[in-house]
Design a protein that fits this description.
single chain, 342 residues, alpha/beta, Udp-n-acetylmuramoylalanyl-d-glutamate--2,6- Diaminopimelate Ligase, Chain: A, domain 1, UDP N-Acetylglucosamine Acyltransferase, domain 1, 12-stranded mixed beta sheet, 10-stranded parallel beta sheet, 4 helices, 40 strands
C-alpha cells in the first residue's frame, strides 16, 4: 500500500515542502526507516536523525527545513503520527460468521456482521452488536450486552450482565465483572457478601491485557467514555471512572472510589476506597492515595501529598547524610567544650 506525500498531507491538514508526488510506502522511526518510508520529528535531535535516515519524507512540526528530504509540516507531529498510523497499518478485518467450535445459547442475539472465533462460549440472552469481534476463547456469560465495533481479544471473560458500549477494545486475558472483594466477619469466620451488581463500560474505552474489573456489590462499577486502562490494573467493586481518564500499568483501586473526568493515574499507584478524585487530578507513579484529591491537583508519594511538598521532602532526605555528619561534628565540639569547662 502506497500514498503520495500530497495524499498524506491532505489527510493531516498539513503542508508539503518539496515534491508532493513522492511515494510513501511505510512508516517507521528514524533509526528503523527504509527507503520510501515516512518518519517524524518534533525536536531538533530527532530531525537530525530523520534527515540522516533513508526515509523519503519527514512529518514535522516546527520551523525545520531540509534540502534532502520532503517535509510534511503539521501543527503537532505526534498527534499526526497517531492519526496517520492506521493508514499504513490498517487493522485486520475479520470475516463475519461463527466458528464451528463456538457454543452459543439459542436465546443469544448475534448481529449477522459479527465474528465469533474458535472456542467462544456465549450465554443466554447475550446481545452482540454489528461488526463486533470475539477473537477466540472468550466466555460471555448470560445477559451481557455488547455494542457495535467491539473487539475482545483472546480469553477475555465477561461475567453476568456486563454492559459494553461501542468501539471498545479489551485485550487478552482480562476479566470483566468478577466478584468484588466483600466479606463480613461473623461468628469467627469471614462470611462472603454477595456481589450482585455489574460492570458498565461506555463507548471508546480500551482496556489492556490481564486487567480485572470487579462488578459492583449492589450497583454498577462504571468505566467512563474514552477512558484508557493499561495492563495489569485492578478496579474494585463500585469504582466509578469519569470520561477520558488514563490509568497506567499495575494500578489498583479499592472499592467505591470515584474519579472525575480526565484523571491521570501513573503506574504502580494504589488508591484507597471511598475516595473522590476531582476532574483532571493527577497521581504520580508509585503513590499511595489515602485522601481525596481536588480538581487539577497533582499528588505524589506514600502517603500521597501535593507533589511539590513531596519533592521537597525527597530533597531533604538526600541531604540527611550530610546533616547527620555535621550534627556529629557539632556534638563532638560541644563535648570538647564541656570537657574544658569542667
Amino acid at each position: 500500500m502506497s500514498f503520495t506525500a500530497a495524499e498524506i498531507a491532505k489527510q493531516l491538514n498539513g503542508e508539503v515542502i518539496g515534491d508532493a508526488t513522492t511515494t510513501l510506502t511505510g512508516f517507521a522511526s528514524a533509526e528503523l526507516a527504509r527507503t520510501g518510508d515516512l518518519t517524524f520529528a518534533d525536536k531538533e535531535e530527532y530531525f537530525r536523525a530523520a534527515e540522516a535516515s533513508p526515509a523519503a519524507a519527514i512529518l514535522i512540526s516546527g520551523p525545520f527545513t531540509s534540502t534532502t528530504k520532503v517535509l510534511i509540516r503539521v501543527k503537532d507531529a505526534r498527534i499526526a503520527v497517531a492519526r496517520v498510523l492506521p493508514t499504513f497499518f490498517p487493522p485486520d478485518e475479520m470475516p463475519q460468521g461463527i466458528h464451528p467450535s463456538a457454543s452459543i445459547a439459542a436465546s443469544a442475539q448475534i448481529d449477522a456482521t459479527a465474528h465469533i472465533g474458535p472456542g467462544c462460549v456465549i450465554g443466554a440472552r447475550v446481545k452482540l452488536g454489528a461488526r463486533t469481534v470475539l477473537l477466540g476463547g472468550n466466555h460471555i456469560s448470560r445477559d451481557c450486552v455488547i455494542g457495535d465495533d467491539v473487539c475482545l481479544f483472546p480469553n477475555v471473560v465477561l461475567y453476568t450482565r456486563t454492559q459494553i458500549g461501542n468501539r471498545v477494545s479489551i485485550h487478552a486475558g482480562t476479566v470483566i465483572g468478577s466478584d468484588g472483594y466483600g466479606y463480613a466477619f461473623d461468628e469467627g469466620r469471614h462470611r462472603k457478601v454477595l456481589q450482585v451488581g455489574n460492570v458498565i463500560i461506555h463507548d471508546d474505552v480500551e482496556i489492556g491485557a490481564n486487567a480485572a474489573i470487579d462488578r459492583g456489590a449492589l450497583g454498577p462499577t462504571i468505566i467512563g467514555q474514552g477512558t484508557k486502562i493499561d495492563n495489569l490494573v485492578h478496579v474494585a467493586h463500585n469504582v466509578v471512572m469519569g470520561r477520558h481518564c488514563l490509568v497506567m500499568g499495575q494500578v489498583g483501586f479499592a472499592g467505591s472510589t470515584h474519579l472525575g473526568d480526565y484523571c491521570v493515574i501513573a503506574s504502580q499507584s494504589g488508591i484507597a476506597g471511598h475516595l473522590k478524585l476531582g476532574p483532571q487530578a493527577t497521581v504520580g507513579a508509585k503513590s499511595g492515595v489515602m485522601r481525596d484529591v481536588g480538581p487539577k491537583e497533582t499528588v505524589l508519594g506514600v502517603p500521597a501529598m501535593p507533589d511539590k511538598q513531596t519533592k521537597r521532602q525527597w530533597i531533604a532526605m538526600q541531604q540527611l547524610p550530610e546533616m547527620i555528619r555535621r550534627l556529629r561534628e557539632l556534638e563532638n565540639q560541644v563535648a570538647e567544650l564541656k570537657a574544658k569547662v569542667q
